[in-house]
Write a structure and sequence with these properties.
Layout lengths: L6 E6 L2 H5 L6 E5 L2 E11 L2 E6 L5 H17 L1 H15 L6 H16 L8 H14 L2 H11 L9 H8 L4 H11 L9
Antiparallel strand pairs: 1-4, 2-3, 3-4
Helix pairs in contact: 2-6, 3-4, 4-6, 5-6
Amino acid sequence: MPKGTRLRVPFLLTNDRLATTLPDTVQCFIGKFVWEHSNCERRSSVAFGDLEDVEEVQEVQDIVEMYEDFREQYPELTKIADAVHVAVWDRVDEAIYCWFESLAEALNRQIGLADRNIDFTSVFSFFDGKYRKGSKDVKDCIDVSFVENLFWRVRQEDAAPVWDLLPEHLQELYLGFHGRPPPNGLA
């Protein structure tokens, strides 16, 4: 897409942002790109802003599309990931890559629960499909932000049955980074 193209992208709002009016511009970090949102409008906990003069719009758009698709398909898990993200980063309006790290942490917490309410097979299939069809930036986001953070500090007995649900291709990404199957990060 040519320079000067506008792209309408979402960003999350924290409770304090919800209570106040949006600023005219909000800085947004999507992968290696840092942009200023302008012309912001709020819809529930997600706001939308225009990105202008974007030279590599498609790369950003692919990641944003994956992010929006996930939020639409998994609204309950999205709420959990949003809460994890706010607890760690104090807000979630700037970093989609970091949000996928928070999603991995939200899943890690679910792995340790006796009564799991998450369809891990469906979630993992979502990312496997996006990885197989995605742009280089989508693949990098899934690999670095999501897969590398899965199973972090999850006990072996909890991780093993969920590890078996992870598609082989995503297992390969995990092993490529960690060098072994989970658990990782345990004392």
